[in-house]
User: What shape does this take?
Amino acid sequence: MREIYLSGYNNFVLPFMIGMIFVLSWCVIGAARIILQLTGEDRKKFFLSLINPKIMAKNVRDWFCDCLFHVKLWKRNMLLGYMHSSIAFGWFMLIVIGHIEVFLYTPQRVHQIWYPIFFRYFVAVTDSTMKGSFFFFLMDFFLLVILSGIILAIIKRARSRFFGMRRTTNPSITDLIGLYSLWCIFPLRLLAEGFTADISGGSFLTKSLNMVLHSFLSDQMNMLPTWWAYSIALGVFMCILPFSRYMHIPAEILLIPMRNAGIKVTHARKGYAKLQVYSCPSCGVCIDACPMSTVKANTKDTTVYLNRQIKRYNERRIEEISDKCLLCGKCTAVCPVGVQGDMMRIAQRSVRKYKLAPSYANIDENALLERCNKFVNTSNNTVTSDRNQRVMYFAGCMTSLTPSISKSTAAILQKAGIRFEIMDKDGGICCGRPMFMAGRIAQAKEMIEKNTAIIKASGADTLLLSCPICYKIFKEQYQLEGIEVIHHTEFFDRLIESGKITLNGSDTRYVYHDPCELGRGCGIYEQPRNVVRKAGELVEAEKHGKESICCGGSLGSLTLGFDKRKALTENALANLTIASPDTIVTACPLCRSTFNRYSDIPVKDIAEIVDEATRKKKR
Amino acid sequence: MKEIVVIIGGGIAGLEAASQLLKLGYSPIIVEKSDRLGGHVARWNRLFPDMTPAQDLVSELIASSKDANIFLNTEISFINRLKDSYNIMLSNGISIISKYILYTTGFRLFEAQKKEEYGYGIYNQVITNADLEHWFNTNKDDRISGKDIKSIGFVHCVGSRDEKARNSQCSKVCCITAIKQAIELKEKYPEAEIYCFYMDLRLFGKKFEDFYTKAQRDHGIHFIRGRVSEVSENINGQVIVKAEDTLAGKPLKVTLDLLVLMSGMVCNPDSTKSASMLSLPIDSDGFLKSSDNVFHITSSPRKGIYYAGACTGPKTVPETLAEARSAVLEIHSTITGEAR
Assistant: This one.
């Protein structure tokens, strides 16, 4: 390779350089601000994670899998995955190979950051660099890959259904400018390199384009305007980037190590929350996922729009969107970037100012402790029975409203010969999760303290829950050392495994509904299915497991009325009954009563079917 | 030729309409799904406010409509519209062509097990208003008979005025029915304490208010304003009811030997089904929609189709009978108008 221009500079690099300097300084300042906004503890955690080889390895893997290959999108839809990864990975490879070329052929130009980008303009091919044709081929190949991605992107704008997306985001003006400049960059690059391919060399794409162009455009002066156009497209894209959805490209690079460091959303707008907002690529995967999107009016209340409104500081809409959400967590589960829609909303709710703040500090936990049966001998203060035999069953308020669940659970425990007591038989304190979901963390903490005191003093070694809403907060926010917190689905699975109860199977076709708080919330998918399989035939819903659809009854939403929830429940029921089951089984009292309101087929809790299946044996 | 009028439903509205049509010289045909006439009222024991035996009313109605064509155990297979009449195909294979159809399809009692927190079908001490009337009639119900009953509760508005139960309408008759049943139970168990848990008492009818005063003054029945939140069971086989006394502003817990749920009136899915064959409009509460709720409550938007009784919403017995007569009069004036 031989340089053509001594200076290695032409004015057309200016738009690119302006954009580059702008975006780099923006990102550096932004990253520094976000790191400074973290709490001291989180910041320490973050820096420590960067020197932890295990976490670093995970970071590198995630950078490649998430930012470049978009593995999560591939899993969702092949075409969608190809579209995103072809542009991201293709562009990445163009930059990498471009730099390799500069290093190999014109090492004196390494410090000129525009050089690798406009390499073909500045150099001419020589005989001695025929080996370079290997790089020429790679460059053309990746350019082709990107162009195919761009074509798909254009098709997707018109027909998103081909990409497995029913609805996509409505782009904002800056998004559109970014989008169109991005679409322009690569065809312009092809054109520019096509013009210079006879001098700088090229491969199958640029060389052939060069032949075509020369057949009717012999004037070499055409070259410069196309390079200018290419540079301007790059410049525009980079200047608009911080204000458009493409901010997710740099933001995600920081989001991944922070996520892997185990940082959580603590402040509603600052630090990690801000980073999540900027990491949102506005892809709109959450729109189809959101159970509220069944009603078209709700599509603007999905996570992607929450992020957009947070960017715009539109407080009225932020409040509306955060309060409406059911907190089912499905947007978090499907998000290719890892924006935590549910956490973000709880954080928004937690900064709300209320005129009234109820206090639960005056609840007398000792009186409640008196009333609940304990495993402690009052005379000598020792526990009354062996370890693993002191099960405390906390039914919770939802189970108290669906008494057949607590009745069945108690019956099963009796049959299995487990020594148990019911903690809230004669009234109890709420687990705190509803308050936590409403963003009233201080109130939730008060309840957590009271309940912790009762449980610890009761001498129990296992806390059994039949409500996933309680289960989640007991698992995550309570400090109950030495006491196992277990959901009844897990407990039944264990009882069956250990042979303490035997289920008599039937030929009833059951479909299992994953409650949000149990599945996505606590990651329990298999145990309930094991139990159901023992009781009858298990069929699956169209969307299940991680993608299960909220029943519509969630406590998470603060503003959705009953009339508005009907369509959501009916949609969830249609999804569940796709394999025409005889009975719907769930493991949440709230899902059960919500479905019961609209279902044509019986809806039962897993405790009820286990109780029935064990009862048959005795006859 | 005598004009045929098809009456769908052999409850009190259908029977009264048939007897009036017979008097006017028409030929009514009653199509009844079950194997007996009289509908819900036939299963009731006594009617408020005069404690008239329900059986007397039903027998009288059956006697006066005995000349009508009555098909028991028969359902509507389909109805289709002809040029100026309707073709009604019955499940027994008979098809009727008539210009006039009167819907007297009535209501259905809310399924109390849907309000699971009240424990119907789960606890043995929980019954519904219909179960209680059945016991008054037959004295056969293991949940009541042969027990030492010392305390009884009534829960008003079970499945009515309740969005969670998908019914926001008031069932009208439950307040007064609860008072009636409370008095009747008090007469049978003079020692028992009786509590009525209500949201507010809607005692709109003739002598209803007197009945309420009597229940408090003469029978010592306790009225507690507040909805029941949940019901649980204790070891002695009693139910524990948790509620809030909103007048005292305090939570409340009572242990009861018997709990009666006042199941409300909800729309009859059968009437909705046949209405859809004629694309008759359904109101937001699920009941059939009259062409006007003030002036034309017995007429539908379709020519020749009339409504009477609880198919358009909860009604009392006298209201139902009055509507049956008014619908018949409307049919009569239409027929004579056309003949002229």
In short: The longest helix of chain B spans residues 317-339. The radius of gyration of chain B is 22 Å. The first strand of chain B starts at residue 4 and ends at 8.
